[in-house]
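Structural prep section.
Before we set up the soaks we want a predicted structure of the protein with 2-acetamido-2-deoxy-beta-D-glucopyranose in place, mainly to decide which crystallisation condition to try first. Input record follows.
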Amino acid sequence: MSCVRQLKSLVSLTLIISLLPTGLAASTTQKISLPGCPDKCGNITIPYPFGTRPGCYRDDGFDGFQITCDESITTPKAFVGSNSSNIEMIDINITSGETRVYKHIGYRYYDTEDHVIDTNNMVMDTMDSPYLFSYRRNKFTVIGCHTLAYIAGEGDRPYQSGCASFCEFQNSTTGSSFFLTQTAASSCNGLGCCQTAIPAGLNYYKVKCGYDNKSYWWFNPCNYAVLVEEDSFKFQVQDLMEQYFLNRTQTHVPFVLDWAIRTKGTCQDGVENSTNRACLSYHSFCRNTSNGEGYLCQCSQGYQGNPYLFGGCCWSYVLEVNI
Ligand SMILES: *[C@@H]1O[C@H](CO)[C@@H](O)[C@H](O)[C@H]1NC(C)=O
Ligand SMILES: *[C@@H]1O[C@H](CO)[C@@H](O)[C@H](O)[C@H]1NC(C)=O
Ligand SMILES: *[C@@H]1O[C@H](CO)[C@@H](O)[C@H](O)[C@H]1NC(C)=O
Ligand SMILES: *[C@@H]1O[C@H](CO)[C@@H](O)[C@H](O)[C@H]1NC(C)=O
Ligand SMILES: *[C@@H]1O[C@H](CO)[C@@H](O)[C@H](O)[C@H]1NC(C)=O
Ligand SMILES: *[C@@H]1O[C@H](CO)[C@@H](O)[C@H](O)[C@H]1NC(C)=O
Ligand SMILES: *[C@@H]1O[C@H](CO)[C@@H](O)[C@H](O)[C@H]1NC(C)=O
Ligand SMILES: *[C@@H]1O[C@H](CO)[C@@H](O)[C@H](O)[C@H]1NC(C)=O
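Run finished without errors. Recording the C-alpha cells verbatim:
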C-alpha cells in the first residue's frame, strides 16, 4: 500500500492523475493516528506514537506517549501522560521530535522583611518518560533585581549552572549609577533578566535562589526563574513589577521537549529487526536523536507523513506547471 499526497498544484486534476506513476491511486487523505483513534484533542493534532486512548499510543512502558485529553472544557486541552500531569501541550512535531508544552513559571514572593512567603513551581520533572528538555530551543531565564538563580539537575545528571541579574549599573566614565531603562532592557542581557543554556540529556531540574534582597529595589518583590523556549520570550522592563509578568504570560511560558523512541537504544541496536520496532512505514528510516539516547523515524526523501504507521509515509509531489 502506498499513498500520494498533493502539496500544491496549478494544473487540472486529470493532468495530475496522468502524471502519477502507474499503480498509485491519488488520495489526499493521510493517516496520522491508528485506525479508529482520535487524531485531535481540541485543535491539537495527535499523531501516532501519541494517542489519547488505550491502544492508540505506543506503549514503551513509559508514561508520555499517552495524552490525557480534558474534554470537559469548551476548547479541550491535552496534557502529557496518563494522569493529569499539569503539563499542557501546545503542539507535537512528528518530524523534529519536539513537543511544545506550557511550563508554569517558578516564582518566589517576599514580605516586607525579606522573608519568603510563597514559592511555587521551582521543579520540572519528566523522568520515566520519552522526554528530555530541549537544549537547543530552551534557555534558563531569570527575571529580577539583584538575583542569582541556579538550575540544578539530579540523579545521573548532576549539573549546576545559573546566572545573575541586576537592575542598576554604573557609567564607567562618570561613575554615576543608573537604574534600568527599557532601552537597556531590550534583551535578556543581565539587566533585569539573564539567560543561560542547558546541557543535553536533562529530564529534571530544580531552581535554587542565591542572594536576593527585596528592599534592594522596591518594585521587584518577586523573582521568576523558568526554562523557556528562547524564541517565544521577549523581556520587558515592566516584567520586574509585581504581577506584570505573571499577568501577561498567564503564569506559564512555552517550553520545548525532545521526545524519541528510547527503549531500544540507537538505530544501530537491531532496531529494524526488533519486534517492537517503531519505523513501520515503507519509505521510512531511522535516525539517532541528538538529545540523549534513542531514535526517531523519518520518511525518505520525496515522502511525507507519519513514518510510525504502516503506509504512513506518502509520496508527496509538487507541481508548479502553469498551463
Ligand atoms: C489552538 O487554539 C488556541 C486558542 O484558540 C490557539 O492559541 C492555538 O494557537 C491553537 N493551536 C493550534 C495548533 O492551532
Ligand atoms: C496515576 O495516578 C494514580 C493515582 O494517583 C496512581 O496510582 C498511578 O500510579 C498513576 N499513574 C502513573 C502512570 O503515574
Ligand atoms: C516541524 O519540524 C520541522 C523540522 O525542524 C520543521 O521543518 C517544520 O516546519 C515543523 N513543523 C511545524 C508544523 O512546526
Ligand atoms: C556615560 O556618561 C557619559 C557622559 O555623560 C556619556 O557620554 C555616555 O554615553 C554614558 N555611557 C553609558 C553607557 O550610559
Ligand atoms: C537588604 O538590603 C538592605 C539595604 O541594603 C539591608 O539593610 C538589609 O539588611 C538587606 N537584607 C538582607 C536579608 O540581606
Ligand atoms: C493583573 O491583572 C489583574 C486582573 O486582570 C489586574 O487587576 C491587575 O491590575 C494586573 N496587574 C498588573 C501589574 O498588571
Ligand atoms: C535484520 O534481519 C535480516 C534478516 O534476518 C538480516 O539480514 C539483517 O542483518 C538484520 N539487521 C540488523 C540491523 O540486525
Ligand atoms: C547512532 O548512534 C550509535 C551510537 O552512538 C552509532 O553507533 C550509530 O552509527 C548511529 N547511527 C546513525 C544512523 O547515525
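Observations: Residues 241, 243-244, 247 surround 2-acetamido-2-deoxy-beta-D-glucopyranose (ligand 6) (CB under 6 Å).
Flagged for discussion at group meeting.
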